[in-house]
Amino acid sequence: MKYALFSALLFSSLTAHGASPSTPAPGEAEFRVHCMGCHSIACNRRGPKLQDIFGRKAGALGDFMYTDSLKNSGIVWAEETMDAYLRDPATFVPGTSMTFGRVESAEQRRDIIAFLHRQDKSSDLCI
User: Fold this and answer.
1) How far apart are the C-alpha atoms of 4 and 85, rounded to whole Å?
2) Using one digit for the tens of pLDDT, what is the confidence trace for 29-67?
3) Element (H or E) spanning 35, and its range?
4) What does the alpha-carbon distance between residue 4 and residue 22 come to, in Å, rounded to a whole number?
5) Is this model's pTM higher than 0.85 or not?
6) Do 115 and 26 form a contact (C-beta atoms < 8 A)?
7) Architecture of the CATH domain 25-117
8) Alpha helix (H) ranges present in 21-105?
9) Residue 113: which of 18, 28, 20, 19 has the closest Cα?
């Protein structure tokens, strides 16, 4: 009985906020569509890991080989710089190797940025 009540309360809480137990966290779906082809949170892939990216200098992760253009860009990742980069990477950092295209929707970019903000050292998304 207690379990049924807890489950009902959890489900109603999730659905009241537009989520269900199987719905990914806001921004995760956009991350999977736009970013996960090359990036993960906790592991380097074709692109560098994105764990704790905000406040980090672009091109400064020691265990990844970046283009000189990104290493020398002077960018420090913040909401504004990430938004501009996701909007059009090749224009924001000419010579970047990130050529996936663009995330044209401002709402999708905001969702991805919010998702990345929640990925700290405890995040283990490495697929």
Assistant:
1) 46
2) 999 999 999 999 999 999 999 999 999 999 999 999 999
3) none
4) 18
5) no
6) yes
7) Orthogonal Bundle (1.10)
8) 28-34, 68-71, 79-87, 89-92
9) 28
Distance (Å) of CA 46 to CA 36, 57, 97: 10, 19, 10
Rounded alpha-carbon distances, angstroms, from residue 16 to 52, 57, 110: 30, 38, 22
Task: Mark residue 23 as left, alpha or beta (left: phi above 0; alpha: psi -120 to 50; beta: remaining).
Answer: beta
> Would you state the structure tokens that stand for residue 87, as one six-digit string?
């909007």
Return the structure tokens found at 22: 């199987």
Q: Can you give the residue ranges of every domain in the chain? A: 25-117
Residue 97 phi, psi dihedral angles, 5° rounding = -90, -5
